[in-house]
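Continuing from the previous page of notes. For each protein in this section, the sequence appears first, followed by its structure tokens. Read the first protein now.
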Amino acid sequence: MTNADPGVTEWDFFVSYQQADRAWAEWIAWQLEGAGYSVLFQGWDFVPGTNWIKLMQDGVSRSARVIVVLSPAYIGSVFGAAEWQAIWVHDPDGAKRRVIPVRVADCERPGLLAGIVGIDLFGVPEPKALQRLQDAVQQALAGRAKPLNAPSFPAADGSTSTGTTPDSGTERTSKSRSVSSGADAERPRFPGRAYHVEIRGAQGVQIGDNNTQVNRW
């Protein structure tokens, strides 16, 4: 596996995962393709008759970004590390945001991955996981996470203004693609935990650049 920088980008995303996490990886790939992105996914594209080594090489050399499906199984894999590092070597400072870690289980971010901001999809209902994936993709492409609407004025007496908040659900601009939740019965089942009650006060954590970012909903 060489480290040649892609001369031609054939896929928007290459999903790097271990077989133990295929359900998660397939769910992620389905949402991305449903939103119109091109995805190289081993479970769908490495079919009988194809050259496995060539496709893997193409995945790391001709994909704009890699989604790292991070779990204890992935951390223990030598091949998994080789896949994302082959892309990371051409963007070590994260300027192009080519490596996107997505934790699907509670685990440490080993080595260089500890310095890359990522997201957690585990422990939350499917709609919340989908929103996190959608936001991560859009922010990685844009390079910023500025909200579309102005924040409410933080009044001195503790009350909030009646202005529109960043989480008001205002439709995004037509230029931004959103990850589709699709109602197709054939779509992969969400691998995470199913919830039947409203969750309040929970939080997800992103770790990167020696900072800990807490997402609340």
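Done with the first. The second protein uses the same format. Note its length before scrolling.
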Amino acid sequence: MKTYLFSGGFIFFATIALFGFLKKPNKTAPPTGFALVELFTSEGCSSCPPADEAVAALDRQYKGKVYILGYHVDYWNYLGWKDAWSDADFSGRQRAFAQLWHSENVYTPEFVLAGREWHNWFTGKNGPKAGGAKAGVLTLTSTDTNHWQVCFAPENPPAGHYQVHAALLAGGIISDVLAGENQGRRLTHDFVAINFLAIGLKVEENIVRGKFLLDAPRSAAGNTLALTAWVTRAGELEPLQATGGWLIPPPPN
């Protein structure tokens, strides 16, 4: 039986061994990781393809040092093209961010970096940076890639309640858009969220623990599959720590 173990730790804004499949995980790896990057996008928005290109550029620039998630919102579907990866829950997550920031509007493309709106993604200014306060170690384990055990050991004794957020991400997706603002274009997507959840965790002897079930939809496309998970305080969106890895890694070049 194969066991999958992903571990991230020690640095807020930092994650250890991001999208690498970890055969020999190292919990004490140097703190060289970066923050969670979340993109709200849509195939129905003509401004979004450059954001997809930016995602690919971020992956190349911070290879192994950044978590990237693409949420396809559903509020562009009325223009004639229904984004196959869109989900009302992703639109709801974006609105939750907007409420947190006291913003009256949502828009695409929108990048969120470590729980904060990132306006300068197109120039890379104020992008992912190393460093930050110590947060602790987050570990995920599974024997079947569906049922996961969560263990978060905070740097300081845990206080209050915590949640784990987890997403399955598909990559290498190619979509021929036949209507809407991107009609006639062939779009390529990576790190597309195809399943997402957020559940509460329990504190036991200064360790935050829990478990979750996350299945890949039968209609999942593309040629890669990854898992990313992060911990927040309950009711908050700013990540405390994150980890993840490939379940189906990219094909060899």
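What the second structure shows: The chain has one domain: 4-21+31-248. DSSP finds two helices and 14 strands in the chain. We return to this in next week's lecture.
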